[in-house]
Every structure is written in C-alpha cells, then in structure tokens.
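INFO worker-7 received task bundle
INFO bundle size: 2
INFO processing item 0
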Amino acid sequence: MRLAVIPARGGSKRIPRKNIRPFAGRPMISYSIAAAIESALFDRIIVSTDDAEIAEVARAYGAETPFVRSPELSDDYVGTIPVVADAIRWENEHHHPVDDVCCIYATAPFVQVADLRRGLDILHRTGAEFAFTITDYPAPIQRALRLNADDRLEMFEPEQFASRSQDLEEAWHDAGQFYWGKASAWLSGQPLFGPHAAPIKLPRYRVQDIDTPDDWQRAELLFKVQTL
C-alpha cells in the first residue's frame, strides 16, 4: 500500500500553533492534506500529531489521525525520519504492509499535485531509496560571506574571490515540501541526503521556508500572487 504521512506536532515555538494557523484563509495544514487527497496516490493519509486540536482540524479536512504521537517523538529535537518510521510501523501492525511512503510537511502550502505525482515516478524510475524536492541557491555558495568576531566580513572560500559566478558549481538545497521513500528506507533510519536519493527539482518562486513571522508574511504574498 501507499501511505502519506503529515507530521504536525503541537509545540511550535517560533510561530505558535503554526500547523493550524490560518494561512490565506485556511489552516496551514489543510493545503498539504488537500494536495495529498487530490493526487489520488495514497491508500491512506495520516497526520502524526500529539495535539488534539491539530488532530481535529486534520480530520475536518479529510486526513486520518489513527494514533496519538508519543511524547518521545514530539519534542524539538526529534527528526522527520523516526516520526515517519513510527507511522509506518503502526500501519504495518494494524492494517496492511506499506510499500511507498510520502512525508508531506504540514507547512507546505506551495506543494502541488503534479509534483507529488512526478516525485513518485522519479522514485520508481530511478530505483532510488528516496526522492525529495530541491531548489537551487540564488547566488553561488562558494562566494558566501560570514561576519567574524570583529563584525567584519570574510569569505567562506577566499580562493574563489576572483572566480566568475558562471564558472562555479551550481548548488541546491532541500525545498522542505515532501519526501518520497520506500518504506524499508524510512524504517532503516538512513539519512535522506546522499547518493541513494533522487532530486525533484522545483523553481525558486515556489519554495519558501516558513520559520519566522517574516517568512510567513512573504509566503502569503507569494501564495496570493501565484493563485490570482
């Protein structure tokens, strides 16, 4: 079977209640649930949460909340992989063996159905263990700057000062939207980033981290422009 897991714990610190805070008129988590439903890819769509209010909102928008996430998997330091693996183990024990799993972040309002479908195709076609969304950096990371202890500027790679931007290697980063993976890969605990993962490339204008109030405002503006 094919499973969607949407992690949504209740203890967000920087933006309180972020997972269900209204975003462009709807709870943030509703966008991830809606994309998963519309894609018609999944036998079950599970929200993994420790929070009763989040669970209620998730069910109202069509997801299932068949278990309460344990406190051990709900603090600030638990990563995505053990949370998804926990949902897979629950499903394997209580229903049907899981084959493919997509972890969709609850704070991914830019996720698109076509990308979810493309991601599954990439996972199967490439034979990778994982496939996840990435986008390119807007400027060469080899020419990045840091502030030193004297509040002066230094290059991370001073040897690249004279290099032309077009001659430097392109760099990519995690787009933070969703992660396809084989159930066995999630359960093994192997890291997502590495040669066993295939890329799902997204344009930069459809990628926005939402970790601060400024991020939130920028994301809503981008969302409104893209949905005009």
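INFO item 0 finished
INFO processing item 1
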Amino acid sequence: MQGVVFTGDRGLELMTFPDPTPGPGEVVVEMKASGMCGSDLHQYRRPRNQARNATGLPPNPNPTIVGHEPCGVVAAIGPDVLPAEAKIGQRVMVHHYQGCTQCSHCRSGWQQLCQEVPVKVYGNNAHGGHAKYLLVPANTLVPLRDELSFTAGAAISCGSGTAYGALRRMNTSGRDTIAIFGQGPVGLAATQFAKAMGARVIALDINAQRLARAKEFGADETVDPGSNDPVEAIRGLTHGKYADLTLDTSSNPDARLSAIRSTKVWGTMCFVGEGGDVHIDVSPHLLRRQLTLVASWTFSNIIQAECADFCIDRKIDVDRLFTHRWTLDQAEEAYKLFDRQSDGKGVFLI
C-alpha cells in the first residue's frame, strides 16, 4: 500500500509500505476517509533535523504515515480481539492514542495522558490514516453510527472532537456568550457546536473568507482583529461585561492574550491551539478577575463517541466543514493549499 509521509521542511512523499497484518489484540482498518488537521502543519513544517515537534513528541526515525483523523471499516481482526471490540465490516473511528492501557488515565479513556509508557500517537510517531490500511489496537476503536458519513467520522476523530471537548470542559450553555478566536477547522467546528448548545457566538479571525463561513455556521457576531481592537469589540458587544467564555484555537500569542483580556470577571478562558506561548500580567488579567484558565487537549474515547451522538441528535451537518476532498496522490497539492491557512478543511477519500 502507499502512504503519505512528511519528510520535513514542507516536503512529503507517497511511499510504499507492506499491507499490515493484525497481531494479538489488533485490527486492520480499511480507510474510507482520513482528515487533514491543523496540527498536521506542525509536522509538515518541521525542519528535517528538529528533535521534537510542537506536541513535544520525538519524531519516529523511520518513515511514518501521517494522518490522525482516521475513519473506515474493520477489514481484519487479530487473535484475542473480543466480538464486543470489533467485527469485520464494522464502521469505526479511531481514538488515535495508545498508552499502557492499564493506568487510571488509560482505563478512563484518556490514553494520551498515560504517564507510564511513551504514548503512541497514530499519524505522528506511529503510522496513521493517510493510507489504504491502518493497524491499531482494538481498544482504540470508536463505533461510527450509520447516520454519520465517513468524512464526518474523520472530523470527529480530532478537529471537531477537539472543539466539542473544549466546549464541554467549559460547560457551555445557552446562558453564555462565547468568543472564539480563530475560525480554522477547529474554531469553525466550535462555532457550529456552541450554537447547537444554545450559546451566543462571537467569531474572530483575520481572514474575511473564514469570518464569512463562521456567519454561515451560526456566529451571531464576527470581529476582524486585524482591523479592530478585539478586546474593545467584545466589550462593546457585551454591554461592557466581556464574554462569559473565550476559546483560543489559533495558537497566536496576541490572540491568546486578547482572549484572556476579553473574558469577564469570574469567566473561563480555554486554550486549544498547539504550540506557541503567551505573556500575561497575572494580577490585572487573572487574579483580580477571578479568571479560570482551562487547557483542553483533544478528548477521551468516551467523549469522542458522545460528540458523534451529539451531532446525530442535534442534526449537525459536520460534512459542511470540508471545502476540499482529495485522493492520496494529490497529497502534495493538498498540503500546499492547507499550509496557506486561508481555506477550510480537507479530507482524503480512500
């Protein structure tokens, strides 16, 4: 089979790999859709000799297939896999992490938080979904209901699921006004979900096309921080009270600081975007406003399944997120376009 491999410095190759065979406790998933996620760009842009990427993981020294939003059907099952875990032909998403499986984090569905062994991240330091087949432990599978497309399942497997997980961490409700900084794939999904939760949404981005899409996805107000002071704009839109909740999906230091400064007294601000930093004057921005800061890294496998159910129950059209659909042999063109960060979300159909 062929798989997409990032070679460093915005280079990639379509390399040939053996078709995988499942061992004990493993399954092979035949890919149907594999999403492109904003965090792919950290790997795509990484210098060839850089020791670590933005997630802090050392890169695999061997060629590694990328893509951590995998969705498909179970094609082969190894020994010791229980019928409750996987069946041939079953439609599945993948929770793309593997820890020790036995610690309290792993057993509660948060394998990415495992402190006992180096965590495998499929599509990062272990083979991912931009290929015909993906070999993973059966315990990483999350069933995909028939009501959702494979492309929707791919989005929920990271980008959209990340947005849902963050909103859930902040207990978003219809009482809240939320300001969402960045309207890339994760930010736009957050806009979509926050509206479904009943919140009033203020969407922020410097790209006019992304702001227009945010409006289509239900944003009540849009703000361009490139031509407006975002803090003052949010203050004006909230009668001087600022936002109940703010969410940064951009990783931009200025956006992060603006998100903190535009959160109301007793409000909650959440970091989602990977990498980068932010410099905060603690007393006026945090202490004297009784602010709560939340860091939200993706989701558990339980929340992934909950997100899928939420999309079905609320009739959320996740597929609307995708503006581009590609084949694997178009990977170079796909990532060059995605690297511009001006369009929407892409997915490989396999």
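INFO item 1 finished
INFO post-check item 1: The chain has a mean pLDDT of 95.
INFO post-check item 1: The first helix runs from residue 40 to 45.
INFO worker-7 idle
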